[in-house]
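Write out the 3D structure for:
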Amino acid sequence: MTDIIEEILNELPSEAKVSDTYFEGANIIVYTSSKDFFLNNGEIIRKVVQKIKKRVELRPDPSLCMGLEKAEKEIRKLAPKDAKVTEVIFDPQRSVVIIEAEKPGSMIGKQGEILREIKKKTLWVPIIKRTPIIKSQIIENIRSVLYQNNDYRKKFLNKVGHRIYDGYSKGKKEEWIKVGMLGAGRQVGRSCILVQTPESNVLLDCGINPGIDAGPGSYPILDAPEFKLSDLDAVILSHAHMDHCGFIPFLYKMGFRGPVYATEPTRDISALSSLDAIGVSFKQAKKNLFDIQDVKEMVKHTITLGWEEVTDITPDIRMTFYNSGHILGSSMTHLNIGNGAHNFMYTADMKYLDTRVLNAAHTRFPRLETVMIESTYGNKESVLGSREKAEEDLVEIIEKTRKNKGKTLIPVLGVGRAQELLLVLEAAMREGRIKKMPIYVQGMVWDITAIHTAYPDFLNKDLRRLIYHKDENPFLSDVFKKVASRKEQEQIMEDSSPCIILATAGMLNAGASLEYFKKMADNPKNSLVMVTYQAQGTMGRRIQDGERKIIFTDNGKATEVEIKMGIHIITDFTGHAGRNELMKFIKDLSPRPKKVIVQHGESSRCLDLASSLHKAYRMETTCPKNLESIRLR
């Protein structure tokens, strides 16, 4: 028995009738065989939590729970009609019932009254999930994987808990904290940061370089002497762009069986992005890094957290996610290391500005000594214009292209800017600024938009309100047309009518956007609008840098295409913070950090931002290269 379990049991009265104790990650689960204690224990458990400063949850012993069939009938009887319950799924080993409903608030009831009634009548612990308004196959598949592996998940989470609570080494060790760059050091791509202490080895992100097609520089430098997969305790995933998540399934292919910490949207979107990468490789007759089973392993081992939810992840690291404002579910990671010895915050990709989809990045923390910040647009020349001007420019390009009877292609990352643009275009058509025409959506964009409707708590308050009221949900507008097949894509190209096409990938390095581009590039009536960062080595970057003749190879046959379509670059829609936002973010941080580590930017931009922060705020700054390490303590 671990010390912490013994401490909890000593605090509980004999009438608690504890039948079992279990860890679910950092959460401590106590099972009781007393119906009365389960229903009337609130004050006792609260006191235990206050004393030990850990999360403790009381559940009924499975023997107390009502039979499954009878319990489901009772739950559906108690559910208000407007809640619209779609699924009732039981997890008998954990005494938990998951209730999926279109309106979770109605299912919970005022001050949780319906949940209390379900517990009282059925003796199951209810967990409410939102049914996506737009059907999402990926969410259904992920929930299915989790439900089918309940037994494995229970054992896995218990093992994680034992690592956290049994893991303190005996005897006093020297306290030290080291941060090593295994990727994204003075570059954009393959983000991978190793945080090490005497007790822990944790990765912050583990992505690929989308600008390089295999070979050196494509993947994190995991053959560095300081990294051993067998010693890795956990991966913390900031968000679901491939340069941050794209290598994680490969870790499971190589035998890693530890946890990935992420928000629910990040888990779902990273799984979808990984599956999409497998599909793209198959279409290009290339061998992918990992297969579907490795993605399933990643999902099985992911522990999801909400923003500002504090949890222990190793014996000496406590973690909290905060909104980063970049894409749905994207998070900054705050690490409290060594029981307060040092407080480190990794921004990952961030946006310090309210957008149509998200609120600006969080700036208030309990304690903060060191910040690691991105610098994608960190140099003095990367001052972004206003969102209002960017929207006006986009509307003008689309309307001009329409009048020329052309089509507008907007290559997008599946998550983030795509949803921002859908809202911009929907509003412009509703307000009459753009003449109504079809907006074709292809690639992951549609699926990820569905995920947005499943997790409105991660969106800004205005959009959240619209999604809660189904009749006003802008994502359900009839101007959006899902493109589900190659045949439909060809029909769009054969049709001479003006339209707008949003398709992945955002850097024109693969996917539907590249196929559209090949067919549209030689027509001067058409327009290409680039709205995302274009990494070095990608097709998008080559076009952005002025290349106007491109050689494509299909089935071994080379074809040269001359680009005659209009090329437009609007960087102000980016989900990254511009130069002024980055400077203001550091200025507004509370408390102000003593040290800033600059990464995730081309070398000149990292150096420029580091120098400017040092001069402006008189703080220590550094921008390490890959394979360099920094000792924080």
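The two ends are 33 Å apart (CA to CA).
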